[in-house]
Design goal:
2 domains, 14 strands, Rossmann fold, seven-stranded parallel beta sheet, alpha/beta, single chain, about 15% strand, seven-stranded mixed beta sheet, 13 helices, disordered C terminus, elongated
């Protein structure tokens, strides 16, 4: 049995593919340790996976503000020493980083101790961690069609985002019943990503009555600390009460996406991969302050493949009209779902698992040959 260390904390977009990879490795007889942050979102998501082993790393994100920068450097130094100890204790055959501030100390520890490193970038504009650390990695997984001049061609592989195994399209009717929704009424799900979105939350609260009046049920996930939970029954023009529900966090996102006719969401790569897997059309509202404007690039690609449309945050007053124009248009909805099926044909997790096993096997053989030559 081989062991891997996977750094994936800080956001749901990093943690979710890390969980998917850990479960995939376990299914093949390997062992994985997830290195996560000390953020609340990591704790909440991992509660669902008690069978996985994880370690919390010190560390905070990069900032140009002097005090925050000093805090970042100090915490990253502590995390680096922690990673060195973990690598020496666990003796992994490979290290995998999904970007973010938890990847830096692990990659540097792998570089120091001679353990093969693989990095995965899910966004169509690679983040700072991948751009800075990619040259130290034996493998860098990038989205299809994306290349970086700083990364060797021989190290580059084009792979989508690994998605957790529970993300399969369920029967919409059954998913709605399990969530307490009416299976006969349209369902709109509003997602702001793992950190939540104040803008989408405000829009949802403002437009609940209008959407319910048109016969659309609304289920919103506001994000931790960014909303309150509750269920409300509102009148509709059809004379049938319409349910609206708000939760701050959900560990049943696959069920939510299966129940939804349509989703209004930010455009993080993790959310888009899950939408594709569950074949759920979406109206994407990219977060304009995302690093390097990567959400706009993600959203544009998703829309160009026919999975939905993009509405800029500056045009959010048009969201309700767009929702109602799409959700009751069965022809357009079928077209979106057909395109999503085509987008989801490639199993990114299997491709990544196969390549990782080849990479670590080749590295192990090279190391043994080197020892024999020295002897």
């Amino acid at each position: 049995m081989s062991k891997y260390l996977i750094s994936c904390g800080g956001t749901g977009g990093h943690l979710s593919p890390g969980i998917a990879l850990a479960e995939g490795l376990a299914a093949r007889g390997h062992e994985a340790v997830l290195l996560v942050s000390q953020k609340k979102v990591d704790s909440r998501l991992l509660e669902k996976y008690p069978h996985l082993r994880f370690e919390r790393l010190a560390g905070t994100g990069f900032s140009l503000r002097p005090l925050q920068l000093l805090k970042c450097i100090w915490s990253q130094a502590r995390a680096f020493l922690q990673c060195v100890r973990l690598v020496r204790a666990c003796r992994p055959v490979g290290l995998v980083g999904f970007g973010g501030f938890t990847s830096t100390p692990l990659v540097l520890a792998g570089r120091l101790l001679g353990v093969p490193v693989a990095l995965h970038e899910s966004n169509r504009v690679p983040g700072l961690a991948i751009r800075a650390l990619g040259r130290f990695a034996q493998r860098v997984y990038l989205p299809p069609g994306i290349n970086l001049s700083s990364i060797r061609e021989v190290a580059t592989r084009h792979v989508g985002l690994p998605v957790r195994r529970e993300f399969v399209r369920q029967s919409p009717g059954e998913a709605r019943v399990e969530l307490g929704l009416d299976p006969q009424q349209k369902v709109l799900v509003v997602l702001g990503g793992s950190q939540g979105s104040g803008v989408l939350n405000d829009w949802m609260r403002t437009e609940l009555a209008s959407l319910a009046g048109a016969g659309v049920q609304v289920y919103g996930v506001t994000g931790l600390g960014k909303g309150s939970e509750g269920v409300t029954m509102l009148p509709s023009k059809l004379g049938v009460p319409v349910r609206t529900e708000s939760v701050v966090f959900s560990d049943r996102v696959a069920q939510l996406l299966s129940a939804a006719d349509l989703v209004v969401s930010r455009a993080g790569a993790g959310t888009l991969a899950e939408l594709i897997r569950c074949e759920t059309p979406a109206i994407l509202v990219p977060f304009p302050e995302a690093a390097d404007d990567h959400q706009r690039a993600n959203a544009a690609y998703f829309a160009s493949q026919g999975g939905g449309i993009v509405v800029e945050q500056t045009r959010r007053e048009s969201l309700t009209a767009e929702v109602l124009a799409i959700i009751f248009n069965e022809g357009r909805m079928r077209e979106f779902r057909g395109n999503l099926q085509l987008m989801g044909r490639t199993d990114a997790l299997e491709l990544m698992l196969n390549d990782l096993e080849q990479l670590t096997a080749a590295s192990g053989t090279a190391a043994r040959n080197s020892r024999h030559a020295s002897a």
